Structures are given as structure tokens and as C-alpha cells.
Amino acid sequence: MSMASDLRRSWLVPAAALAPVLAFAAMALARADAGKPASPLFGVTVPDGYRGWPLIAPALEGEPLNELRAVLGNDVAVRAYAGGTLPFPDGTMLVKLAWQHGPSPDFEPATVPGRATTVQVMVKDATRYPETGGWGFGRFIDGKPVDEAQHRTCFACHEARVRERDYVFTRYAR
């Protein structure tokens, strides 16, 4: 055998020995959210760094919720919205921030956010969530997921009202 074949063979053994380690590392990355509070039905967590994501659209919700809302999207969501891509691709994440609202103390005609009410998350993963149009849902109050009964209402409302838009209410504010 040549020195080159000995060298190649010496790399093959360590690479094969590393396969279980690499598989474990991939599983660990996939479970990086494991320590975070997760929605009870879908296992959705609040994504790290979401506050730095681009704005998809704001909204003003009237009674009974009386909320000011902002929907943010990750890069996958922004590309899909910008390109008019439906259905949204796997990996799309949308985060809705909601606050009570009221008049500005500094400029009465203006409406400003007050107390935060919820953070809501939608994650597109057709393999993980086939029963709900490929979407997983999470609703969090003060960083804690709401109960299972409230999560059961998420998809039913989306399915009844915006099925033709891949179950997404928010339209892109350009």
C-alpha cells in the first residue's frame, strides 16, 4: 500500500467513529429549545432574537381585546411575503406581539402601546404539524405558555377564515 492510501484510511476510521457524535450534536441543536417554555399541544417556543426580526405588519384590534399588535417574521417569512410565495415554506416563523393601547400622554390623538398582553408564535413545519396545515402555534403570557384549551382554538380560527392564504391572517405591509 502507498502512503496516500494509508493516509486516506487513517481519516476514514476517525470519521466513522465521529458519526454518532455528529448525530448527537445534530439532535442537541434540534433540542436547543428544550429548556424553554413550550406550547402544550405543539411544543412551539418563543424564538431567540425575534425582537430583531423585520416587521411584517402592525394591526389595531378593537373590542373586546383592545390591542395594538405587531407581527414580525424571520428571514424565511420575509422572503416568502416579498415573493408572494404560498404556501409558506417550512422554516417560516411569525411572532405577534400584542399590547393594550391607549392615548399618548404626550400627544392625545396618538395611540401608544401600554401593558404587554401576549406573544404568539406560528412555525411552519409540514412534517411536524401535518394535522394543522403544517403550522405549529404557541401563545405566551409573561413568558409562560397558555393552557391547552386556548391552544386548541388557534388552528380552528385560522382554518375557518384564512385557509386560502396558507392559514395566515397577516398581510405584508409594504
From TrEMBL:
Domain Cytochrome P460: 47-170
Ligase keyword on record: no
InterPro entries: Cytochrome_P460, Cytochrome_P460_sp, TAT_signal
Keywords attached to this entry: Signal
Signal sequence, renumbered to the chain: 1-25
One Pfam family matching this protein: Cytochrome_P460
Listed name of the protein: Cytochrome P460 domain-containing protein
Source organism of the structure: Methylobacterium isbiliense
